Each structure stands twice: as structure tokens, then as C-alpha cells.
Amino acid sequence: VIGSITGVRFILDTFPQIGRGPSLNVGIHHGALTEGLLTFAIVTISLGLARKIPGSFYMKTWISSVSKLALHILGSDMTGGCMNPASVMGWAYARGDHITKEHILVYWLAPIQATVIALWLFKLVVRPLAEEKKDSKSKSE
Question: pTM to 2 decimals?
Fold first, then answer.
């Protein structure tokens, strides 16, 4: 968070016309739902690509980059589409609204809850690779 705040201050000092960072353009509940769904999607995609499945490192990186960019563009009109509480903190601190109900609910609680739910569901739905290897070995014997 300290690095984000320092980076934003450096950017604003260097390029004062750059902008004001992400801002909420919808209701607080709609914004929290949007940030939560975007975060859920990106965590699920990242977990799926992180599994040791056959495929090119470059293809996985490309899929991850394109999906993050697409999700960012989808959410940019409503919430800024940040999906990262630390990066939003720098902009909010620079504007002076880092301790508001809107900021805490939309940019902190929703992404953290979405990450926990995505991890839990991924673990529940996708079997670990160790179990898959044990099952295939026991079937071949």
C-alpha cells in the first residue's frame, strides 16, 4: 500500500493532468457487486491457468493478460475496474477519500470476499492434481 501511495504521488507530481484514478460511477451496492464479480472472474481464471496442465507458458500468459484487460475494460465505466485494493488505495489517498464507506466496501471488502469465495469454490469443484495422478495409477495397476 505504501508503494502504491508513493507511486501515485510521483505520477501526479510528474504528470498533473493524468487523471484522478478509479471512481465509483454507480450505486455503492452495484459497485461492490461489480468489483466482486470482476475479482471472482480474474481469480478463477488465474487459478485455472496456474494448474500444471499442458500448455505453453506464453499462451497462458497471453490468456491471463487478455482476460484481465477485458475485465478491466468491462468494469472501468462503473468502478474503474481495478480489482486490487492496494492499487486503489494510492489514488484514494491522493484524493483524500481513502476512509469512506464507499471505498472500504467497494474496493476492499468486495474484492477480498470474492477472492475467498473463488478460492473456496475452485478447491471444491476442481480436484487436486495429486488425486488425479493417484487415481490414474491405481486404475493402470
Answer: 0.77
